[in-house]
Amino acid sequence: MLYFPGQITIAKGPMFAGKSKLLIRIVRTHGSQSSLVFKAGIDTRYLGAGAICSHDGESTPAVPVGTNLDQIVKGVEQWIARWRCPPGNLLVVVDEVQFMGPEIVDVARRLMDLGVCTVFAGLDLDFRGDPFGSMYDLTQLAHTVINLRADCRVCGAPATMTQRLIDGSPARRDSPLVQVGGPESYEARCANCHSVPEE
Ligand SMILES: [Zn+2]
């Protein structure tokens, strides 16, 4: 993969499509010394919020970001001032973008203006199959879009959707976006096998 100053890349797809694995590989290839990695603070799977972790156990440290997304731009400006490097040498990675507020689009524009290379990653669709957070708007800004696919757990076809299951059954459309309590799980599924009962 080639990076140019001010370029924005988006890596998107359903769960289990290998987004975290791709991000970890991108950071390793670019060099962790010249990479700044951020992720939405909500995700506490595996090692917790302070790292990007793949499902097969690899990880790379990440700065957890809450609701104040200015933290990303400030972190990048401080890095540039501290190391006095051309901004184009810096790779910025932002993971779990679907959990971030709409200000992330403005953050992307500011990173572009600063001249750093940025990779955003996240789920493009929620469990209902609707656009998730600001992922769609962000995709319109991107120079490169990487569509990651999993294998459908039911039929094996390329999966673009994330199926949410509650007690083993497809979650209803009106169930909350973030489930509190009750056993829930997720599967990657193709559009044919994906199911969202209305009631
Ligand atoms: Zn299928």
List the helices and strands and how they pair.
Layout: E1 8-13, H1 19-30, E2 35-40, E3 51-53, E4 59-61, E5 63-65, H2 70-83, E6 91-95, H3 104-114, E7 117-123, H4 135-141, E8 144-147, E9 150-151, E10 158-159, E11 161-166, E12 169-170, E13 184-189
Parallel strand pairs: 1-7, 1-8, 2-5, 2-6, 6-7
Antiparallel strand pairs: 3-4, 9-10, 11-12, 11-13
Helix pairs in contact: 2-3
Structure description:
With 199 residues, the protein is of the alpha/beta class. The protein has two domains: 8-148, P-loop containing nucleotide triphosphate hydrolases (Rossmann fold, 3-Layer(aba) Sandwich); 150-199, Wheat Germ Agglutinin (Isolectin 2), domain 1, CATH 3.30.60.20. The chain contains four helices and 13 strands. The chain has helices at residues 19-30, 70-83, 104-114, 135-141; strands spanning 8-13, 35-40, 51-53, 59-61, 63-65, 91-95, 117-123, 144-147, 150-151, 158-159, 161-166, 169-170, 184-189. It has a six-stranded parallel beta sheet with strand order 5-2-6-7-1-8, with helices on both faces. A three-stranded antiparallel beta sheet has the order 12-11-13, with no helix packed on it. Strand 3 (51-53) and strand 4 form a beta hairpin. Helix 2 (70-83) runs parallel beside helix 3. The radius of gyration is 17 Å and the shape is elongated. 36% of the residues are buried. The model has no long low-confidence stretch (mean pLDDT 91). Bound molecules: zinc ion. Zinc ion is lined by residues 152, 154-155, 157, 189-190, 192-193. Residues 152, 154-155, 157, 189-190, 192-193 line the site of zinc ion.
